[in-house]
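Open question from group meeting: does this chain pack into something compact, or does most of it stay loose? Before anyone orders reagents, we agreed to write out a predicted structure and look at it together. Recording both the input and the output here so the notebook holds the full record.
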Amino acid sequence: MSDNIRRKDILSKDLKILWAKTGNQCAMPGCNKALIIDETDFDTSAVLGVMAHIKGEKLGAARYDQNMTEDERRSHNNLIALCPDCHTVIDEQPNTYTVEKLQKISN
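Structure tokens returned:
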């Protein structure tokens, strides 16, 4: 995909499915960090959770699959909700966090 072409947004339905599955916890086994911190008397809620692509979003990304369609790439089936630390780990260790392993974690 060219940098000049804006990627398509993830559909609302896919976002709802992804975040509903989280239970407000990072999907990584053993992590259990909250993805949203409740509001306080002084501040609004803090969203810490991030979406990660199981099969990379763009060429050169971890686990990128050139055979995926744009719709498959942005589907909830190809996304996982993580804390920022775990998101970094899966992208920095793609040989440990394979597509198959991440698909098991996300289900």
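Observations to bring back to the group:
The helical segments are 12-20, 70-73, 84-92, 99-106.
Confidence is low (pLDDT under 50) at residues 1-7.
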